[in-house]
Amino acid sequence: MTCPTCGRAITFDPRFVRWCEFCEWNLDPSDTPVSARQTRRQEAAKRKGEALFNELRQKPLSKPGQSRARAAAMAIAAAIHAVTLTIFLAGIYVLVLNFPTFFGFLVGGLLIVIAILIRPRLGGVESGTVIMPAESAPALYRLTEQIAREIGSRPVHLIALDETFNAGHGQVGIQRRRMLWIGLPLWNVLTDEQRIGLLSHELAHQVNGDLAFGLVVGSALRTLESWSRTLRPGPWQPGGGDIFSFLESLGQLVARGLYRVLRTVVDLLYTTEESLLFASQQRAEYYADRVATRVASTQAVIDCLDVLHLSRPCILAMHYAAQREEADMWASEQSFMREFSAKEWERLRRLDARRGTAIDSTHPPTNLRVEMLKSAPEVPARVILTASEWAAIADEMSSGFVLVGDRITSRSAG
């Protein structure tokens, strides 16, 4: 085939997008319309991310330190929690002062209920997540403990398996239990060395200076997300033609208008908080990558990041396998990965580089993360497992693969 733009001969795999590696014709075949405002925001975010990358690459990389932006983000987070506490204390005050009157129960009780509804969100485990306690997966927990010792973090309390092409680490609940989430579709296509890189990056979030990992800022961001969802108006309920239906419709109109105003304020607070944390979070991600190389080697972390480009294709491959009722969807995903077009993989790399990152993204573009790692001296692996140790981990996770696979199958059928 000849490229219609530059006229050069190009090869293509009919299963994937036709594009030109020379002039990048049809690199992004998406025809989704994007407004001029969105385009300007994306371009501004990309320039901001690239400027930060160039700044960090010129000097030794370290975790984020104190700054005015981080202080402002902490102040906003504290103010968000202060609002909830103030409402709760006001409710207690009104209730005690007017006890046992109707006014006290009505106003004081209402304020307490509001405070409970807008309480700080401390994180939790979504339904459908497979929990692997330490007693059922000793080999996997030993690996995470070994990695934690190498990077100076603390061991995790619980490991969870889910259906995402991702991984995560955070603290949940009042006890702030440290949890590690492993997305099995991603884990399934990584090599053993890349898996160590993945776990090392996630555990490095304990030591990379990311405020969003902490109690105050992290819970404030989750709280704002919860408020925004709560303030989303439900579907309009049309009434009849009588006066009561008219009053009900009027009430709906007023309530929806109030919800919209409050949600705008909440979303503005969230955007402001994310903007203040932008540089800090991006630096923290770069630093977590660098810490991970000290455990798994530079090349293993780079290769792990490269696999992230295949998130959507691999997830689609699994859903198609489930819809075809294949006996082993996990083997199908691995087969799909082995046969994946090298040219299509390169297209996805370039597309990631072209799009850059959004202002509210906690992660830099994958291509910049790879370039940052390549700019530093290569580091060898310090944690290496034997074949028998990996076999023990695979045996421990086998039941989790079955349960998560069943969930993917049920979603695909739905």
- What is the strand arrangement across the widest sheet? 1-2-4-3
Strand and helix order? HHHEHEEEHHHHHHHHHH
Strand content: 5-15%
Rg, alpha carbons? 25 Å
Low-confidence region ranges: none
Number of structural units classed as domains: 1
Shape: globular
Please explain how this structure is put together.
The protein has one domain (68-76, 127-413). Helix 2 crosses helix 8, helix 6 packs across helix 8 (243-296) and helix 6 (192-203) crosses helix 9 (298-307). It is mostly helical. Strands 1-2-4-3 form a four-stranded mixed sheet. It has 14 helices and four strands. The model has no long low-confidence stretch (mean pLDDT 88).
Which key features would you list for this structure?
single chain, 414 residues, mainly alpha, four-stranded mixed β-sheet, 14 helices, 61% helix, globular
Describe the structure concisely:
Helix content is 61%, strand content 5%. The protein is mainly alpha-helical and 414 residues long. It has one domain.
Blueprint of the fold:
Elements lengths: L35 H22 L10 H30 L4 H16 L12 E3 L5 H14 L6 E5 L4 E6 L4 E7 H4 L4 H12 L11 H16 L12 H54 L1 H10 L3 H13 L5 H10 L3 H14 L10 H9 L12 H27 L1
Helix pairs in contact: 2-3, 2-7, 2-8, 4-6, 6-8, 6-9, 7-8, 8-9, 9-13, 10-11, 10-14
